[in-house]
Specification:
Blueprint lengths: L24 E3 L6 E3 H30 L4 H31 L10 H24 L8 H30 L3 H18 L1 H6 L9 H33 L3 H13 L12 H9 L2 H32 L5 H29 L1 H22 L4 H36 L7 H12 L1 H18 L27 H25 L6 H17 L8
Antiparallel strand pairs: 1-2
Helix pairs in contact: 1-4, 1-5, 1-7, 2-4, 2-14, 3-4, 3-7, 4-13, 4-14, 5-11, 5-13, 10-13, 10-15, 10-16, 11-12, 11-13, 12-13, 12-16, 13-14, 13-17, 15-16
Pfam family, one: MFS_2
Organism: Solea senegalensis
Keywords: Membrane, Transmembrane, Transmembrane helix
């Protein structure tokens, strides 16, 4: 097969794992059809996002308006889903990575190549199953309450498996910040493309006639199944081709290493209790989780109250089409903007870029407070930019978690980095922010305005009980309360995040030192071979 040549500036120039170098390409066996490793890895984000965006937008409306689920069944399903959604991340992470935590003998260490192959095999299996579980929502096959519960848990289980292994590959395929940034860049490109499924869905959505929407969902799922199956197999095949020529050499070095180390003792297995104890001593992990908990809260607060802000702050002053444009921008722009943020990460480092985004969020909110609620165009810009910058920050955090994987590997002297498990522990400790967002938001709204979104009746003794709150402006209490929520929540979040982020030390020289130690440790364990 004719080998293609790509410029030296493309993916992976300093990998410590003997597979995808910066000149590596994967072919489909078709003339002119050549794809880089970064494109293939990023395309997995497309197969996830085209389904997940449609799921988020329509699953509640489908069960409430089409299947007529009752209120008790709905809340029971959501409660069970909340528990399962929090628990399955660390559970699946532990099941995936427990074999990497320790090896009984030095000679039986799991190699980096085996780790990557295991993740790709998991994606080739769980990816198509995730797409098939997506289809279970759109056909009534059981009582609405039972179907709602089973569909949510089944879908989220496969989504977690896919997301954990895909995220873990970011830490396993590359160690250098530049390489991981390039991988994340490709994910942002394909995630942005996947967001267009939301716009296409509007043409097929009809609560009265569900047939066309079902066909649309079947088409999306079929595309996703084929994508996961083909891309994961292509990555595995290419990886095996690169790794196999070095297999004999690696085994030979292992035998020499064992033969020259008669004092080598079996390692003590790492239990759940020991792992949690190690994690509790991981200072940067704790500060990151504190910051990320607030970030998850703010992201979901924006999602939950975006329609409320449009309705009570802008609906009387903008057209419906302008509102839909703002909604569309809020879905697409974070992915596009992330491409620019990633170029800044390559130049200044992800730590500094995230800190600047917190400062921008704080600065824009203060400006909005000073300007007031009557500047409609400024409000439009602020509502859109607030969500764009907040979501943009979320999409950079995988890079930080990957760095934490490196630090955990070095500090605890692991045989292999437990990438999926660490991503799962972060999810476990930060997902409560999803629940806090609507609870705290609705409570604040009720306190300041007396407006209860459930009862729709004013509450007495609210702090804002008369229209003329702002000197003669005649601003209605509900509108003013929404404005307070819109500007003061980002201010509070930004201040808390800046305080927590200032305690995070895994950046600059320390981060470079950790990466050097991880590479050296892997070479010392004879897991890695000369970089390509």
């Amino acid at each position: 097969m004719k080998q293609s040549t790509v410029p030296n500036t493309t993916l992976f120039h300093r990998l410590t794992i003997p597979h995808f170098g910066h000149d590596d390409v994967v072919t489909l066996g078709l003339p002119g059809r050549v794809f880089s490793t970064g494109v293939l890895y990023g395309s997995l984000s497309l197969f996830i996002s085209i389904l997940h965006n449609v799921f988020l937008l329509y699953y509640v409306e489908t069960f409430v308006s089409v299947y007529k689920i009752d209120k008790i069944s709905f809340w029971v399903g959501e409660t069970v889903f909340l528990i399962w959604n929090s628990v399955n991340d660390p559970l699946f992470g532990w099941l995936s990575d427990r074999s990497f935590l320790s090896s009984p003998q030095s000679g039986s260490q799991v190699t980096s190549s085996e780790v990557v192959l295991k993740r790709l095999k998991a994606l080739s299996t769980n990816g198509p199953l995730f797409a098939l579980s997506f289809l279970a929502f759109w056909v009534a096959w059981a009582r609405p309450g039972l179907q709602f519960l089973l569909c949510l848990c089944l879908y989220d289980g496969f989504l977690t498996m896919v997301d954990l292994h895909h995220s873990a590959l970011l830490a396993d395929l590359a160690v250098s910040a530049a390489d991981r940034t390039r991988l994340n860049f490709h994910c942002s490109v394909f995630s942005a493309l996947g967001s267009f499924s939301v716009f296409l869905s509007y043409s097929f959505w009809d609560k009265e006639d569900f047939y066309l929407f079902r066909l649309f969902c079947v088409t999306l799922a079929s595309f996703s199944v084929l994508g996961f199956f083909i891309v994961s197999r292509m990555l595995r095949h290419s990886f095996q081709q690169m790794a196999c020529p070095r297999k004999d050499e690696t085994l030979m070095h292992k035998e020499i290493s064992v033969g020259n180390s008669p004092s080598t003792q079996p390692e003590k297995p790492v239990t759940v209790r020991l792992y949690l104890k190690q994690l509790s001593r991981h200072r940067n992990f704790k500060w990151f989780v504190s910051m990320n908990l607030i970030q998850v809260f703010h992201c979901h607060f924006n999602n939950n109250f975006f329609p409320l802000f449009l309705e009570h702050l802008l609906s009387d002053n903008i057209s419906a089409s302008t509102g839909s444009i703002l909604l569309g921008i809020s879905y697409i722009a974070p992915h596009l903007n992330n491409m620019y943020f990633l170029t800044l990460c390559q130049r200044y480092g992800v730590y500094h870029v995230i800190r600047w985004l917190f400062m921008v969020k704080l600065g824009l909110s203060v400006v909005m407070v000073l300007a007031g609620a009557d500047h409609i165009y400024l409000l439009c810009i602020f509502i859109a930019s607030n969500r764009v910058f907040t979501e943009g920050t979320c999409k950079l955090l995988k890079l930080v978690i990957s760095d934490l994987v490196d630090e955990d590997f070095v500090v605890n002297r692991r045989q292999q980095a437990t990438s999926a498990l660490l991503f799962g522990m972060v999810a476990l400790l930060t997902k409560p922010g999803q629940t806090f967002a609507p609870l705290i938001g609705t409570w604040l709204l009720c306190v300041y305005t007396g407006y209860d979104i459930f009862e729709r009746e004013p509450v007495k003794d609210s702090l804002v009980s008369v229209p003329d709150v702002v000197s003669g402006s005649g601003t209605p209490p509900l509108r003013l309360g929404c404005f307070y929520l819109l500007v003061f929540v980002p201010i509070a979040c930004a201040l808390l995040q800046l305080a927590a982020w200032s305690q995070f030390t895994l950046h600059g020289r320390k981060l470079q030192g950790i990466k050097t130690l991880r590479q050296s440790a892997q070479h010392g364990h004879l897991i890695d071979v000369k970089a390509i």
